[in-house]
Amino acid sequence: MRRPQGMVTMPTECPIRVLIADDHPVFLMGLKIALDAIPEVEVVAEARNGKSAVEQARRLLPDIVLMDVDMPQMNGIAATRAIMAERPRSAVLILTIVDDLDSVMAAMRAGARGYLLKGAGLEDIVRAVKAVGQGEAIFGSQIANRIVDHIAKPVQLAVPFPELTDRERDVLRLVAEGQPNSVIARELDLSIKTVRNYLSRIFCKLQVTHRTEAAIRARRAGLGE
């Protein structure tokens, strides 16, 4: 059919090319069918394990990789790292049931651009795919709240000798200050025998053989004056 003169043909926007990586066949197929119904999205392939996801990302060069975390042969975080090393122009969006903060942070360090839980609705997934495709980072509401709480949480200073109890650490601090057992007992309201028992446990845990060595180690760790 000939185009009438003067009619301008508007270029159609290219769909977002998506690779789905998930080892649950029912979920994978349901997600593929749902995304295929979205005009702006084209599912170019599916992968059932992390290794296959890396290979198909290398071959097909998708815009987005929807990546599960727990998968055989190579987990989703390792696969994300490999894809980012070979194909940084592809964006990885994690879609998983794994909701612990350690996994979220590991995925972000591997190069993922977003993190959603599988309980998200299709509209949320499509919105995330579009946002990541435009270079944004996006998180599900639960994940975002955990990240905010983690950032807002006061920094906990490292405790010296975490293998010791609080009371054992108090005893060691006074040892580091050069106090004899009688003063330690009075300061902590303990009997001399109890102080000796504490010292025996401290020496065993720190693997030292005498009081002076324990005091030196304690002062090096910042205990005592």
The share of residues in helices is: 40-55%
Number of strands: 6
User: Main beta sheet: strand number and arrangement?
Assistant: 6 strands, parallel
Number of helices: 10
Name the overall outline: elongated
Question: Which structural class should the secondary elements be placed in?
Answer: alpha/beta
Roughly how many Å apart are the termini? Answer: 92 Å
SSE pattern: EHEHEHEHEHEHHHHH
* Percent strand: 5-15%
Overall pLDDT confidence: 87
Widest β-sheet, arrangement of strands: 2-1-3-4-5-6
Radius of gyration over C-alpha positions, nearest whole angstrom: 29 Å
- Low-confidence segments: 1-12
Features:
225 residues; alpha/beta; six-stranded parallel beta sheet; disordered N terminus; 10 helices
Give the SSE layout:
Layout: E1 16-21, H1 25-36, E2 41-47, H2 50-60, E3 64-67, H3 76-86, E4 91-96, H4 101-110, E5 114-117, H5 122-133, E6 138-139, H6 141-152, H7 166-176, H8 181-188, H9 192-206, H10 211-220
Parallel strand pairs: 1-2, 1-3, 3-4, 4-5, 5-6
Helix pairs in contact: 2-3, 3-4, 7-9, 7-10, 8-9
Briefly say what this structure is.
With 225 residues, the protein is α/β, with parallel strands linked by helices. 50% of the residues lie in helices and 13% in strands.
Give an overview of the whole structure.
The protein is α/β, with parallel strands linked by helices. It is built from 10 helices and 6 strands; from the N terminus they run E-H-E-H-E-H-E-H-E-H-E-H-H-H-H-H. Helix 2 packs parallel to helix 3, helix 7 crosses helix 10 and helix 8 packs across helix 9. It is elongated and about 80 Å long.
